[in-house]
Amino acid sequence: xxxxxxxKWAVGAVAIAxxxxxxxxxxxxxxxxxxxxxxSSWGDPQNPVEPANTNEVQxxxxxxxxxxxxxxYNPKTGAAENVLAEKIESSDAQxxxxxxxxxxTFSNGEKVTAKSFVxxxxxxxxxxNKQKNAPFxxxxxxxxxxxxxxxxxxxxxxxxxxxxDERTFTVKLGQKFSTWPDTLGYVAFAPLPxxxxxxxxxxxxxxxxxxxxxxxxxxxxxxxxxxxxxxxPGADKARNGGxxxxxxxxxxxAYTDLQAGNLDLVDDVPAAQLKNAKQDLxxxxxxxxxxxxxxxxxxxxxxxxNAAGREKVRQGLSMAIDRAxxxxxxxxxxxxxxxxxxxxxxxxxxxxxxxxxxxxxxxxPVRAKQLVQEGGGIPGGKLTISYxxxxxxxxxxxxxxxxxxxxxxxxxxxxxxxxxxTFADFRxxxxxxxxxxxxRAGWQMDYPLIQxxxxxxYYSGAPSNDGQFSDPAFDKKVDEANAEAxxxxxxxxxxxxxxILAQKMPSVPLWYQNGSGGxxxxxxxVALNPFSVPVYNEIKVS
Amino acid sequence: MGRYVIRRLxxxxxxxxxxxLLIFLMVYALGxxxxxxxxxxxxxxxxxxxxxxxLYLDQPLWKQYLHYxxxxxxxxxxxxxxxxxxxxxxxxxxxxxxxxxxxxxVVEMVVGVVLGVFSGLxxxxxxxxxxxxxxxxxxxxxxxxxxYVLQYLLGVKWGWVKPAVSYEAALGELILPGVVLALVSLAxxxxxxxxxxxxxxxxxxxxxxxxxxxxxxxxxxxxLLRNSLIPVVTFIGTDIGALMGGAIVTERIFNIHGVxxxxxxxxxxxxxxTVVGFVTILVLVFLLANLLVDLLYAVLDPxxxxx
Lengths: 542, 307
Hints:
heterodimer, A: 20% strand
């Protein structure tokens, strides 16, 4: 029996070890709602939350609450309005003098000065700091020294930035850029306190900024508790006690939690629930335009797609897509059929103009078939539309687009969807220029300017020009627009450039995306801003 | 006995090295993770190159692996892309998943064995058929269906439980997810127990025990069950590892930030340190669970000896 007793001991020991880890826990969970505090759904930010490294909505939410830059985009109209900027002056659209308002501090008591901005921008642009938003500083003179295309930086700071005194600094751009001040509402341009540079890791664990909220605690991957900062000097003070951002593994679960009354706000209604959201939530369901456009981009680096006359094929394919039906049936009206390459949130004065795309974006199956034939048919005889299958419900709409094209062409094998396993893989194929057919492309604006919808995407050699479209006439129009000091005229020039896109069709505009959300009856005054992020500071708790 | 355990533990070392290498190769085969960090925007080449340099991604594969293993032996499992050390992720995820697994295993064992004994002792009668139908139904419902349905009914419609588990994930909150997780294996445990009991119920030693006039309960628990549980224990042992790694669906539905969720995130973002680190620990759990099962044999059946 000796062996057996021994084994019993061994088993007992392991069992106790297992049980020991099972203890703990308890306490009140994150389920309850504290008085005056709004609980909101969140996704784990992909990168550490710091201004120049945050390029997606989840991290952006936090920075929108804890930091304020020189300008802020009005949550309703999208207009760039001065916040910390007293004035931004220029006589030649290339040399700017920025004056920072007096009386602003970070929540740790440190004053916000001209240096807070200049240090933050220099940090962002420097290659060694690996900040993903570094290209936003490329217009400032000296960027090529601190962020060379290869090799290491030959300078530590941007030569175009000079601190003049405590509240003034000058910016020299490498080219004329009349609407440059309006880009300064983007999160990457936020000021940073000294604490960020002295103790970077500490700052990332608990970010400190100058916005209406301050971070009370941050439990990575689970919850971030933001509380109203009483010393906030701005006009947009928080109207609630604070926000709890809770990480959800799945937006379906967040929605269920909202239904059960354990969560106040979801800002991403799962596609499967869109049908019921109106019934479930009534007027507590939000569906409003955001600065996001979905397109199908053609690989213009592929000779087959770029050959002369092929633009007819591209236009024909665009005409073959029944946008109205797809947005109605698949997206439950949370998308709007697109007829230009910008977004309605820009408004007319900002450069949005429906119908720029003209006939090419109107559904006309008969004409579509003719055009495709005139252009020499689909290159390779078969169209594959690539998309990433891991997130979003891309499969549904890609299949619908293909059906629409097949019906128009009278050939049910003309178009198929081609799923790519993960987003990472999908982006790799795109950046390596390995695509042989059109692929899904989404563009979420960085700032509400028409320039942001055109230049990064279609200008020759532009950073996000995934299809490698290149057209001298288009480039010329964009350059002229940027040099134009008068906003109205600049917008017109950009629209002229857009008309060239309508002729060349380097990408098919599909639809403008709305932000969708829902909230509990505990809170009111909930709205989304043009970036589809909830305007947290306006929310009232009953 | 002691020497046997030590030998088994030593065997884990080559398995550990082999499995990390395999997983490393698989994650590596997924491709370059850097492009995805930039979202829908094309990565800035210089920044991307800098990130690759810092993550050792610009080195040949064998160098990457050696570098990674070198780090592991100093207790550094690398960092996830959001700047969190992987060890930190592990320390938050593993206890939660372990609790969830424990709930599932207990449910599986108690319900499964009890049902199995009932139907095994009444072979071919109504009870047996009912249990058979029940297990068939349970086996054929996929986890996400049972998960969402139960979550909606209990969480939203009747409000008995909270639909999402809080961050602490206390044992009480994990009962519903644990049951959902256990449902599939539960059927296997039931069938295994039933077959084994039905087989052994006609064995000589059972007849002897009954002839000795022992009470029925004692015959079943001490004599019949002890011999019949060997296949069941084997199954449950391997199931521990499977449940810990395979709780992805359940964890997503109930918002449990455990191993499955972290693995899912790691695979989606192609973050090799996360995936390799977590799977390596899972492999160790598998190995330990197997050792535990082998030792349990000796407890259940003294004739089995490990010299």
